[in-house]
Amino acid sequence: MPPEDPAPGRGIGAGVPGVPGPSVQPKPSDRPDPAELYAALDLGTNSCRMLIAQPKGSQLHVVDSFSKSVQLGNGLEQSGRLSRSSMARTIGALKICRRKLETHDVRRMRLVATEACRRASNSAEFIRLVDRETELPLEIIQPEEEARLAVVSCAPLVSAKTEQLLVVDIGGGSTELVWIDLTRVPRHDRARAIMRLHAGFAGEVDDPFPRAKVVDWISIPLGVATLKDQFRDVTDDAARFALMSWHFEECLAEFSPYEDAAGDSDPGFQIIGTSGTVTTVAATHLNLRRYDRNKVDGLRMTTQQIDKVIRGYLAMGPDGRRNDPRIGRDRHALIMSGAAILQALLRVWPTDRLSVADRGLREGLLYAQMSADGVLDDGPF
């Protein structure tokens, strides 16, 4: 079962003396301008990523973006702390984000950190450092909110035929899985029912709309970086991959909702994968020498296609993966741990297809802010 979350959606800083909480928040009386810009920043175990966007109908229009590998969680498995060099790299990236926010005069924002900061014993010190050096309102969110926002971001990719939905977010330090039952939601409203989960998995008692039922969710403290670190002493490439995959499968033992709901040909079951791992596998399958989000986001891959890509990664070996432009310099060291997680998931829930989502926490943060402000249209996705 998922860990208890005594204060879902609150950053750790909100409950730690001397650690500032979010400092840039609109007043409840503010009436947002539909043309106003919003920002969302996701500081993960490996990457710092930000989007600046504007509501456009029922969707969002991206105005600016930023992404950099900062390896904030480097060495965390061994020491339990964020290293000084990792914090310095991250502060440098956050200063760039601050300049972008000022350039675009962004006033409505949500800037969050996830698993590395949740686990580090010196996370309070890091949050204070961020506030002092950048004045950015960085907050640490809990696993339940991280899972919820990942689900919300995938709403536009939910098929009208989907009755059972599994959303998987493979991060650097953790992996979130959410199983959702849509059988009571009319087909035309299933994507929007997913969007309404931004208010919480439990939902409101007086909610007038048919609800998507969250059957179960889990946050496993293993992602591409942390899983890799646990097996770094295994020198054989293929053996390390196999051990990582089986170890992750063992971690799924407590998450087994509707075990008989999914089958190889069940059209009502959909898995959506959102992560750099999934999009890299898709880019490799499409043989993209230059990444193209329009070709990757929403792609549906068969399990045979995924297996073929993973077998190709193993055949390349570390040197081949390092030099493959479809994988990229920032991803080659982590792709096999991510592939091990992906392979384990497809063993546990065999299905003929997986939907690829080039979207995640940032998009979920933006959708949640815009939806709460009432600046998104009610039209179809």
Gist of the model:
Helix 9 crosses helix 11. The protein is an alpha/beta fold.
Question: Could you describe the 3D structure shown?
Answer:
This protein is α/β, with parallel strands linked by helices and 381 residues long. Helix content is 37%, strand content 19%. The chain is built from 13 helices and eleven strands. The protein has helices spanning 76-79, 84-103, 115-119, 123-134, 143-153, 190-195, 224-230, 237-251, 276-285, 293-296, 303-322, 335-348, 361-373; strands at 38-43, 47-56, 59-69, 108-113, 138-140, 164-170, 175-181, 213-220, 269-274, 300-302, 353-357. It has a six-stranded mixed β-sheet with strand order 8-7-6-9-11-10, with helices on both faces. A hairpin with a 2-residue loop joins strand 2 (47-56) and strand 3 (59-69). Helix 7 packs across helix 12 (335-348) and helix 9 (276-285) packs across helix 11. The longest helix is centred in the N-terminal third of the chain and has 20 residues, at 84-103. The radius of gyration is 20 Å and the shape is globular.
